[in-house]
Amino acid sequence: MHDHHDPSQCGHAHAPRHIYIYSPSSAVRDRAAFRRGVARLRARGHTVEIDADALASHTRFAGDDATRLAAIHRAAASGADVALISRGGYGLTRILPGIRYKAVARAIARGTHFVGLSDFTAFQLALLARTGARSWAGPALGADFGVADEPDEIMQACFDDLLAGHGEGVGWRLPRARPDAATGRPAVPNLHLKRATLWGGNLCVLASLLGTPYLPDLSGGVLFLEDVQEHPYRIERLLTQLLHAGVLARQRAVVLGQFTDFRLAPHDRGYRLQSVIDWLRSRIKAPVLTGLPFGHVATKVLLPVGATVSLSVQERDALIHWGHRH
């Protein structure tokens, strides 16, 4: 796994940046992790601005709906280089109608990168559907920068690349896969797709947007998916929903990230995550790639949601490339 960047060769200064921390979803419960994350970012020389309601709490949420909407709009008005969520959880889908998407898109055009994952998928896809603006699937403050030990090196390197403005792609090694039983063909053929829109995120959250104006109507895309604490049958059921809704048939590729923290049951009798992957490959013509280093895991890359990318596979080497932005 690599991000195709050598800082010693890029010729760009890794300058301190302005990072705005806000809480658009669930309330921060692990305040020690929050403080560690802020301290680590500041130790790297960055200016870290904490939203006035970043630690607010209203039932399970980081403040009531109006409070969290205001936090999003303050993040957009902050002029920060990066607007980074404190955590995911739940809370964004219920406030999607109140977000001023054009204001967020203007902030992005001025140079603010909105970064997050999990529940943040709802914000990212609604933003893409409404404005076409690009955001970044990536870390959250507490779970990634606020860990008790050291933050993951690959996650940190990818985040540094975003801050420096020269991240250009992600490559990874596909897991070994048995050839198709019927044809003998490789599970993932060699391929090179050009000019496809990268989109996706958390599978549960994405599926919850079906039938709403907040899911992008994308054809010819590269769809990436991840989830946490979902049994393989639940993952299959969500994928079936996307299949029956016609979403999967319109994609040029489906890329599966990490599906973690689930427990198989005795009555599964051999049914497992690979069973779901095999089933999906039998139902759609587009290639299904696995092993993308993204999800509720320490080692995660940053992915530009809404960017035009190329996707190539050569044997077991996969690469999503979006190029430099200067």
Topology:
Elements: H1 7-10, E1 18-22, H2 31-43, E2 47-50, H3 65-77, E3 82-85, H4 101-109, E4 113-116, H5 120-131, E5 135-137, H6 141-145, H7 153-164, E6 169-173, E7 191-202, H8 203-208, E8 222-228, H9 232-244, E9 253-260, H10 273-283, E10 288-289, E11 303-305, E12 308-314, E13 317-321
Parallel strand pairs: 1-2, 1-3, 3-4, 4-5, 7-8, 8-9, 9-10
Antiparallel strand pairs: 5-11, 6-13, 7-12, 12-13
Helix pairs in contact: 3-4, 4-5, 9-10
Question: Overview of this structure, please?
Answer:
This protein has 326 residues and is of the alpha/beta class. The chain is built from ten helices and 13 strands. It has a seven-stranded mixed β-sheet. The protein has a six-stranded mixed β-sheet with strand order 2-1-3-4-5-11, with helices on both faces. Helix 9 links the parallel strand 8 and strand 9 (253-260). Helix 3 runs parallel beside helix 4, helix 4 crosses helix 5 (120-131) and helix 9 (232-244) packs parallel to helix 10. Mean pLDDT is 94; it is low at 1-13.
